[in-house]
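It is worth pausing here to work through a concrete case rather than discussing structure prediction in the abstract. The textbook approach is simple: state the sequence, then state the predicted structure, then interpret. We follow exactly that order.
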Amino acid sequence: MEFIKNPKAIEDKSMSLIDPFIRDMELTEEEVTVYSRMIHASGDVDYGHLIATSTGAVKAGIEALDRGCNIYCDVEMVRTGINKNALGKLGGQVFCRVSDPAIVKSAAEKGIARSLEAMNSFGTDLNGAVIAIGNAPTALFEAVRMALEDGIRPALIVGIPVGFVGAAESKEYLIHHSPVPYITVRGNKGGSSIAASVVNAMMYNLVKRSGMLYVEGRK
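Step two, the predicted structure:
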């Protein structure tokens, strides 16, 4: 059976097939990259019209990553999916505390989700950072609450939890109440791979611009 073997040719073909589904949107070149890679990661062209972003959110995320900001995640699957080779070249690191023994113990004592406790534990480290949430609505609700009530100012919230309990609601809460830039997907769809794809797409824009090597599969 004949099939495409060259990775660049595969990527180019994928992007050309995705293009008709976002062509009618008024997107910047950087936004096209983000939207395309979210669709590519999901295999679902419906994503194009479910993605919701605040004005200039992609630009804000790219600028923060360019400054060497860190990334804070809700679950290990998001952290694993982020291209740490590219992030390291930009000067940033990625963190997740959901399995930290102190977080596990504290969350159990309080009777709350570990993802919520972990997000709260980052505190002021979130200022100027990118938050990437792909699984836990509780983490997204807490990130928005911290921005509203505690004055925490991340550069960008990528809030794309997946599921049927609280996921859609947390994303609508983000859209209607977040005082900071955001990228999300309306409804129940989402997930760790989609959240990671947003961060990777923003880094892809940066390394392409600078001429640095970007290796998609190197974590």
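Step three, interpretation. The beta strands are 51-53, 71-73, 94-95, 130-133, 156-159, 182-185. The longest helix spans residues 192-210.
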